[in-house]
Write a structure and sequence with these properties.
Mean pLDDT: 92
Number of strands: 8
Bound molecules: 1,3-dihydroxyacetonephosphate
Order of helices and strands: EHEHEHEHHEHHHHEHHEHEH
CATH topology: TIM Barrel
Helix content: 40-55%
CATH architecture: Alpha-Beta Barrel
CATH class: Alpha Beta
Distance between the termini: 15 Å
Low-confidence stretches: 164-168
CATH superfamily: Aldolase class I
C-alpha cells in the first residue's frame, strides 16, 4: 500500500513562493521516501506547473494538478485537457473537490468523465468525496459518500439516483472498469473540516475510510479495496497528522493550508514515513 502526501495549494502562491518552497522541500525531503512506500506530490495553480515541474524534476516529488477538463481539446475557454497536463509531467490530478462541486457546479457526471479521461492518459486521479456539515448533522454522511462514489464509478446517474442526466456536451461514459478503478486514489474530505481547523477525529475519519473500502469491496473486489489508497483531507497539519496517519485505513493526506509552508509540509511527510 502506497502512502500519499499531496499538497493542494488551491489559488495560492507566486513565482517567488514556488522558488522558496521547492528549495526548502527538496532540501528537507527524506531520502527513504520511496523505500517507505510514500509518494509526495504538489498541486500548484496551473500557471505555476512549469516552474514547479522544472524545480522538482529528477527528485522524489511529483507534480500534480488541481483541475482538468474531460475532453482532449475543443472550444472550452479557460480549460486545460488531460493531454496538456501530461505534456507538463503531471502525474496526479485532483478531481471532485468540494470547492469545485460547491462553487462551480461540477457534477458527479462530469467527475466520472474526468476519471476516464485522466486514467486514459496515465494520470492518477485523486477523487475527492465528502459530506457537508448539514449532511453530517443529519447523520447522512455515509449515504452522501456512497452516492458520490457510485456516481463516479457507474454508467449513469439514473442508476444511482433514479434521475435522468441532461449533459449535452459530454458523451455518455462507460462504467469504470476494475482496471481503471485500480488506478485511482480516493480522498475523503469532509467539507466541514476543510479550512476550518476542525479536523475529523482519527476515529471519525478512519470509520469513513473503512466504509469507503467496504463499498469498493462490494463494487469491485477484495484486492482492489485493500490496495486502494484512501487519503484524508481537512485541516491536516503538523500537529494532527501523526495520529491520523497511524489509523489503519488512512493511507495518506491531502493537505491544503499546511502544504503552503515547507516546514509544516515536511513535518507531515516525515510523520507519514514513521
Ligand atoms: P485544508 O487542509 O486547508 O483544510 O484544505 C484541505 C483541502 O481541501 C485539500 O484539498
Amino acid at each position: 500500500m502506497c502512502n500519499w502526501i499531496v499538497g493542494n495549494w488551491k489559488m495560492n502562491g507566486s513565482l517567488a513562493h514556488v522558488a522558496e518552497f521547492t528549495a526548502a522541500l527538496l532540501k528537507g525531503i527524506p531520502a527513504n521516501l520511496g523505500a517507505a512506500g510514500t509518494r509526495v506530490a504538489i498541486c500548484p495553480p496551473h500557471p505555476y506547473l512549469t516552474a514547479v515541474g522544472e524545480r522538482i524534476a529528477g527528485s522524489q516529488v511529483e507534480l500534480g494538478a488541481q483541475k482538468v477538463h474531460p475532453l482532449p481539446s475543443g472550444a472550452f475557454t479557460g480549460e486545460v485537457s488531460p493531454v496538456m497536463l501530461s505534456e507538463f509531467g503531471v502525474s496526479v490530478c485532483i478531481i471532485g473537490h468540494s470547492e469545485h462541486r460547491q462553487y462551480f457546479g461540477v457534477t458527479d457526471v462530469i467527475i466520472a468523465q474526468k476519471l476516464h479521461a485522466l486514467t486514459a492518459v496515465g494520470i492518477i486521479p485523486i477523487l475527492c468525496v465528502g459530506e457537508t456539515l448539514v449532511e453530517r448533522e443529519a447523520d447522512r454522511q455515509k449515504e452522501v459518500i456512497e452516492t458520490q462514489l457510485r456516481l463516479a464509478m457507474k454508467d449513469s446517474e439514473e442508476d444511482v439516483r433514479g434521475r435522468q442526466v441532461s449533459d449535452t456536451v459530454l458523451a455518455p461514459h462507460p462504467e469504470l472498469s476494475e482496471e481503471a478503478a485500480g488506478k485511482l486514489v480516493i480522498a475523503y474530505e469532509p467539507v466541514w473540516a476543510i479550512g476550518t481547523g476542525q479536523t475529523a477525529t482519527p476515529e471519525q475519519a478512519n470509520g469513513m475510510h473503512e466504509f469507503i473500502r467496504d463499498i469498493l469491496r462490494e463494487r469491485y473486489s477484495e484486492s482492489l479495496a485493500e490496495a486502494m489508497p484512501i487519503l484524508y483531507g481537512g485541516s491536516v497539519n503538523e500537529e494532527n497528522a501523526g495520529e491520523l496517519l497511524r489509523q489503519p485505513d488512512i493511507n495518506g493526506a491531502l493537505v491544503g493550508g499546511a502544504s503552503l509552508k515547507a516546514d509544516a509540509f515536511l513535518s507531515i511527510i516525515n510523520q507519514a514515513i514513521k
